Amino acid sequence: MGLLVFAAHCDDGELGAGGVITKLVEAGSHVVLAVANHDPTRRKEAKAGAGILGCDVWFRPEGLDLVKWVSECLQQARPEVLMTHPHYDPHFEHRELSNAVSCGLTKSRDRKLYPEQWY
Asked: 5 forms bridges with which residues in the sheet?
């Protein structure tokens, strides 16, 4: 099983899904943590955290449209399971990413990009 976790900030994925990530990695699954908003210091922290959890970490390139980045991540990872922030999250960047993930999935021309489970 492959898991793709979209996180608005560097610690969001680890705090929100660290237990799930650890369990899946221990079971032999490939896990990617995709971080939308970051700076050099936080990237370093996220890389260290991903190393501890045993997952890959991808960062959105500066200036790349959020929906385009989400679509690229989906095409590259082709996850069976997807996790991200809820649509009702009070933090505006969390909601923005959640909406971009929804948009990236619904605008997909390739139905294989749809994960079997989405949280």
From this structure: 33, 83
